[in-house]
Amino acid sequence: MIQTLHTAASGIHFGLAQFDRAARDMGLGQPTGRVRGHASGVEVPGGDHAPMAPTNLEGGPAASLVQAILARHTVEVNTALFRRTNAVAGELLDLVA
Predict the structure, then answer these.
(1) Is 49 helix (H, G, I), strand (E, B) or coil?
(2) Helix (H) or strand (E) holding 53
(3) How far apart are CA 91 and CA 27, in angstroms?
(4) What is the pLDDT at residue 65?
(5) Domain coverage including residue 22
């Protein structure tokens, strides 16, 4: 259960980093010579990597908007996983007590 909480927290962090990069790309308007920022994944304990959204979108505000939407969904899903795991842990503790 602790592993699941850690994975969910890592996913939330990854989603927020993706969202920050997308927002920065939209705000800067992709000036000439600038390399697009993108997150490539999150390593979780045990050497695995958490699932990640595609990061090979090219150019323009539309691609940045798609990245922001994917980041939002990443945060939402991992937040729901974290909350549900936390609730299950609380229920198990109630059974033991």
Answers:
(1) strand
(2) none
(3) 44
(4) 86
(5) 2-96
